[in-house]
Design goal:
mainly alpha
Length: about 180
């Protein structure tokens, strides 16, 4: 049973109010996840910074989607899977990529498949990734910078996925059509 509140500007702790204003500027409203995180201003601020930093990586929109959704699906996040489906569509990611990630079927591009495999190896093996996985990642054309950028995505998704699990964050209306 969740006892978490989805805060508004009126109910949020004082230190979270400017952070929620930032959410409104960025998204047009306060995503329910941000409303839940507002309970702890440090959590909301950390998440916002990680999100911004991950958006600023060298990864393409397709690659960001692969990292995000691979983790969301692996963690079974009821909130982030539909939210990032909507985000992927806004980023104009090919529907074939989106569907393959959701269905856990082969991606239409081998390089993206290697990225998914590497991301999942990092998550499942808690960062202790085999030399074979690493070599395949580098052979696909990725580099050390992008490996570290995946870790930024993992940190962001661990925060949101775990918080959504125990807070039972309600899925926002605009993401509802992507719930499976």
């Amino acid at each position: 049973m969740s006892e978490f509140i989805v805060h508004t500007l009126e109910t949020a702790p004082e230190d979270s109010k400017p952070l929620l204003q930032d959410s409104i500027k960025a998204f047009g409203s306060i995503p329910n996840l941000h409303g839940v995180m507002a309970e702890a201003p440090a959590a909301l601020k950390s998440y916002q910074v990680l999100h911004e930093q991950f958006l600023n990586t060298s990864l393409t929109p397709e690659e960001k989607t692969v990292v995000w959704q691979s983790i969301n699906v692996e963690h079974g996040c009821h909130y982030c899977v539909p939210a990032h489906t909507a985000i992927a569509k806004m980023m104009k990611v090919d529907d074939a990529i989106i569907e393959a990630l959701l269905d856990q079927t082969p991606l239409p591009d081998e390089k993206l498949e290697v990225l998914r495999d590497t991301t999942l190896a990092i998550v499942r093996d808690r960062g202790v990734v085999s030399d074979d996985v690493m070599q395949r990642f580098y052979d696909a054309g990725y580099n050390r910078q992008q490996l570290l950028e995946i870790i930024v995505g993992v940190a962001q998704k661990v925060m949101s996925n775990y918080i959504n699990h125990f807070a039972e964050t309600p899925v926002d209306r605009q993401f509802q059509r992507y719930v499976r």
